[in-house]
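Structure (tokenized):
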């Protein structure tokens, strides 16, 4: 091969392979004649996959043995005079340059060479490997003349190496990806190799794991047992399997499971141990959590009062039974589990037909809910509720049945008690209706017994009345069959031995006699058999008492024992009282008519009788030219007496007043009680005010106003009086009484002891009544509107709030200012409804401004004293503030200084609740009342509004300026903001800024505006 050809070869200039290549090879000259020994050698080498080649470097041509010709070109004959380039093209392209470089280096360095290469092969053909070895020869000048070498087919070996490498790679990938860590140990137990997973999974460096004493990585409390089990495996050669916590890279311990098997040599001796280390920490934690959960569940089940049970579907036997079963049944759980049929024998015989089929139903229907009785070994009966559910596996097969048994004895008793109570209520209701319509005592008694039996379910009822020394039954209904005639004899004196039983003893003492078990009551022995034959199991006899004396009795018999408990007896005692009342009512119907005209407490005439007496008095007075007067008297502080001393004390006071009025009027004929604490006196022969002097002169009137001695206390209860004269003030009794009431109202309002009626009083009352009617309509028809006056921050001139001011859009008068109707709203109580509307309207307007994207200011709403006195004021406000979309921050309450000082402690509590809702509170008209600084510091307020009266004289009065300055300083020291009201001039504004006032409100900036105009002002961002 000349140097030019070699250089071309090194540059990779490969000649194009022609289509005549195959023919060129076939037509190449044959190889030189070889000796027979050489041929045998070549054949041996060919059988081993080895061929010989010779490269003439001068001609760049090669001679290939038959083996090589077949290897490179698939030709089974020697090939001589083959171009080197042709052979190179048969080598795989990726190995070609490496082969060329190897040949070049061998020629230059006079060295032998050896290289492994691949043949190119045809498309889809299996790739083959060969190893080429050779040695160059040189001429006398040291130039290479030829290269001799061999090429051996190593395809099988290389494929085996590739497969081995792939297998090793797969094994390495498998080992590294597994969640287990692999390790190997020598026969003595020393670690010889660990997988890289030690670092990936446990954070342990494999080299460190090998170098360290592995037992030191085990948690100290596990080391001894872990090492002992490993030593036992080493000594016996058995498979090793242990679990223990190992310290990992972060210093914590995690649970691992170590497993290992011994590998033995052909002689049976252990040559090494191969094992795995698996992270089971999560599993152990789950097992620990499960164990804790099971222990907790077991503790819960053991502490339950209900009996929890579980029944195997395959065996039909209990697999679990809660310990509470012993308390319920009196039989131990273990005994019931050993004896499956024992539970069925505990069921009450009368309930087995109910209970047993339901238990079987659980298998078919999948659910159980049944109530029945059981009988404990001690004979006690208990009601139980058994509930269960069928549990199925994934294939729909019944696995078990779980459920609970609950003791419902108390509930059943309550249900039975409710049934009894309903029966008693039915009797009570029916007899109360009877009392209204009964026309005679006989009808009352007969119907009452019928109702007791038919509606109350009593087996027997009778009513007796007192006749002489006896209580004789006069009405009977139910399972009598002669029982009452034969057995009911009650002697009140006890002289008749036959009527001297337990019922007689009770009736003499006006007590109820109850027997809840006739069969077991020794005192009922004389009547026991007769009662039990008629199904009578319990009885109660109630006295009928009229005017604290026995008037009769009622006997009620039930068909079950234990019927009469405390509640039934209370209702039946009420029933007996109603019957006694009816007896009294029927006997005194004339007295009832009397009560229609007289006051039952004082015995005085009532309003109806008083009016009739005035009407009878007036004609004679008119005919004789005499007049008459109606004097109405009202007691001050009477409600306080009732509230502090009780209703009974109040009644006693009214009786004392009645007695004094009777003495004052000279008799009870012309004295009446018109209402709770209102009395009236009719005075005949009065023509003028002068004629009233005998009644109203100082001494008699002082008698009415003297202190009263009540419950050991001396009470001063002032009296006020209103007087109307006939015929000057009225022509009929009703009008005269009304006019006297008008005078009384005026006297109470003015503090006068008594006042005579004047015509203008009536006109004023009518006008107020008319105003109240119009205001009521205004509230109902929502004729009110809100105007808003802005509040301005004096630092930057921005609108920082508005005050909601109520206006009345009256259909007749137009827009009415608040000064013309607020007082009437408060006096009539309509301010409560109107105030609620104002809060709702203000909250709604605030939400509208926010929805429109306006800078919505806080809305201050004035609250009246009447509103604050309402018990539900705070809850009403909470409902408004918590409406969907409402923002509590959009509202502010304004209360006056004088209002706060009334019941201050209650106001503090109320306003704190308001502040907790996010609604601030301001004191309005500050400076006009008499606030206490100690209370002021406790009030949950955020703002003080200086009254406009101070602002009006701010620029002209040094005293006023000093007061305002003091108020502002005081407020700022308490972290309160100050608002000046009624600012109308620039001079006032200037002084307020000098005094560091926070905000101002007044006509200088804006008058009160309708909602739409204020919204536009907010939109424009108006500033002063």
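Design, position by position:
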């Amino acid at each position: 091969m000349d140097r030019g050809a070699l250089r071309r070869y090194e540059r990779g200039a490969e000649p194009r392979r022609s289509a005549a290549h195959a023919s060129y090879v076939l037509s190449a000259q044959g190889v030189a004649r070889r000796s027979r020994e050489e041929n045998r050698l070549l054949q041996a080498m060919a059988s081993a996959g080895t061929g010989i080649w010779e490269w003439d470097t001068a001609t760049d041509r090669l001679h290939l043995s038959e083996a090589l010709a077949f290897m490179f070109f698939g030709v089974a004959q020697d090939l001589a005079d083959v171009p080197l380039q042709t052979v190179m093209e048969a080598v795989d392209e990726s190995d070609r340059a490496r082969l060329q470089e190897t040949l070049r280096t061998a020629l230059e360095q006079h060295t032998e060479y050896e290289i492994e290469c691949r043949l190119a092969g045809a498309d889809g053909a299996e790739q083959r490997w060969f190893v080429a070895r050779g040695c160059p020869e040189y001429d006398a000048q040291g130039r290479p003349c030829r290269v001799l070498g061999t090429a051996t087919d190593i395809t099988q070996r290389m494929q085996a190496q590739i497969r081995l490498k792939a297998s090793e790679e797969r094994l390495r990938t498998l080992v590294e990806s597994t969640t287990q860590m692999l390790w190997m140990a020598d026969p003595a137990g020393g670690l010889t190799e660990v997988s890289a997973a030690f670092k990936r999974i446990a954070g342990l460096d494999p080299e460190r794991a090998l170098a360290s004493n592995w037992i030191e990585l085990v948690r100290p409390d596990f080391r001894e047992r872990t090492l002992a089990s490993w030593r036992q495996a080493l000594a016996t050669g058995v498979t090793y399997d242990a679990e223990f916590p190992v310290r990992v890279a972060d210093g914590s311990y995690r649970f691992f499971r170590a497993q290992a098997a011994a590998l033995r040599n052909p002689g049976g001796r252990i040559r090494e141990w191969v094992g795995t280390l698996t992270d089971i920490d999560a599993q152990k934690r789950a097992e620990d959590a499960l164990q804790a959960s099971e222990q907790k569940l077991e503790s819960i089940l053991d502490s339950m009062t209900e009996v929890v049970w579980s029944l195997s579907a395959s065996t039909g036997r209990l697999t679990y039974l809660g310990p509470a079963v012993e308390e319920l049944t009196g039989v131990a759980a273990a005994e019931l589990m050993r004896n499956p049929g024992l539970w069925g024998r505990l069921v009450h015989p009368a309930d087995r037909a109910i209970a047993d089929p339901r238990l079987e139903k659980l298998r078919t229907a999948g659910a159980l809910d049944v109530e029945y009785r059981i009988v404990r070994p001690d004979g006690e009966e208990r009601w139980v509720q058994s509930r269960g559910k069928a549990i199925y596996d994934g294939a729909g097969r019944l696995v078990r049945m779980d459920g609970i048994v609950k003791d419902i004895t108390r509930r059943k008793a309550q249900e039975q008690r409710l049934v009894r109570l309903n029966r008693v209520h039915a009797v009570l209701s029916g007899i109360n209706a009877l009392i209204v319509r009964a026309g005679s005592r006989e009808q009352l008694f007969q119907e009452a017994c019928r109702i007791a039996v038919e509606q109350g379910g009593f087996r027997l009822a009778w009513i007796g009345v007192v006749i002489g020394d006896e209580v004789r039954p006069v009405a009977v209904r139910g399972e009598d069959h002669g029982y009452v005639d034969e057995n009911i004899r009650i002697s009140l004196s006890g002289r008749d031995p036959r009527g001297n039983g337990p019922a007689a003893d009770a009736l003499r003492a006006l007590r109820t006699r109850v027997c809840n078990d006739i069969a077991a009551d020794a005192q009922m022995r004389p009547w026991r058999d007769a009662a039990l034959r008629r199904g009578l199991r319990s009885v109660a006899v109630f006295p009928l008492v009229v005017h604290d004396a026995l008037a009769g009795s009622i006997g009620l018999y039930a068909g079950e024992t234990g019927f009469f408990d405390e509640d039934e007896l209370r209702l039946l005692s009420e029933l007996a009282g109603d019957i006694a009342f009816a007896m009294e009512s029927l006997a005194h119907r004339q007295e009832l008519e009397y009560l229609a005209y007289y006051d039952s407490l004082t015995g005085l005439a009532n309003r109806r009788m008083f009016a009739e007496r005035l009407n009878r008095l007036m004609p004679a007075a008119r005919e004789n030219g005499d007049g008459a007067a109606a004097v109405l008297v009202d007691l001050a502080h009477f409600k306080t007496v009732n509230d502090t001393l009780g209703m009974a004390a109040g009644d006693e006071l009214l009786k004392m007043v009645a007695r004094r009025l009777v003495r004052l009027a000279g008799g009870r004929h012309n004295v009446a009680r018109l209402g709770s604490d209102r009395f009236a006196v009719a005075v005949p022969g009065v023509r003028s005010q002068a004629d009233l002097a005998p009644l109203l002169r100082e001494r008699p009137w002082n008698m009415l106003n003297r202190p009263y001695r009540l419950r050991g206390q001396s009470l001063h209860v002032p009296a006020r009086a209103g007087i109307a004269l006939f015929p000057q003030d009225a022509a009929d009794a009703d009008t005269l009484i009304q006019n006297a009431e008008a005078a009384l109202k005026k006297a109470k309002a003015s503090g006068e002891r008594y006042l005579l009626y004047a015509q203008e009083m009536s006109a004023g009352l009518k006008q107020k009544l008319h105003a109240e009617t119009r205001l009521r309509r205004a509230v109902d028809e929502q004729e009110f509107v809100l105007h808003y006056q802005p509040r301005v921050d004096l630092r930057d001139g921005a609108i920082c709030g508005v005050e909601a001011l109520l206006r009345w859009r009256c259909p007749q008068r137009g827009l009415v200012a608040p000064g013309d109707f607020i007082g009437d709203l408060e006096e009539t109580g309509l301010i409560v409804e109107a105030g609620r509307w104002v809060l709702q309207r203000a909250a709604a307007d605030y939400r509208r401004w926010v929805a429109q994207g306006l800078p919505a200011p806080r809305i201050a709403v004035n609250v009246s004293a009447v509103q604050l006195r309402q018990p539900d004021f705070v809850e009403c406000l909470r409902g408004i503030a918590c409406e969907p979309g409402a923002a509590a921050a959009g509202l502010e309450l304004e209360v006056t200084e004088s209002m706060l000082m009334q019941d201050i402690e209650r106001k503090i509590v109320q306003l704190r609740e308001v502040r907790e809702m996010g609604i601030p509170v301001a004191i309005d008209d500050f400076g006009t009342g008499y606030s206490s600084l100690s209370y002021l510091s406790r009030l949950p307020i955020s703002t003080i509004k200086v009254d406009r009266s101070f602002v009006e004289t701010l620029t002209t009065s040094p005293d006023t300026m000093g007061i305002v300055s003091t108020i502002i300083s005081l407020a700022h020291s308490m972290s309160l903001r100050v608002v000046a009201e009624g600012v109308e001039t620039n001079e006032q504004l200037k002084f307020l800024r000098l005094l560091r006032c926070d905000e101002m409100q007044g006509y200088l900036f804006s008058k009160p505006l309708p909602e739409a105009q204020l919204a536009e002002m907010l939109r424009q961002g108006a500033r002063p």
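Reviewer-requested clarification: The chain is about 45% helix and 25% strand. Residues 1-34 have pLDDT under 50 and may be disordered.
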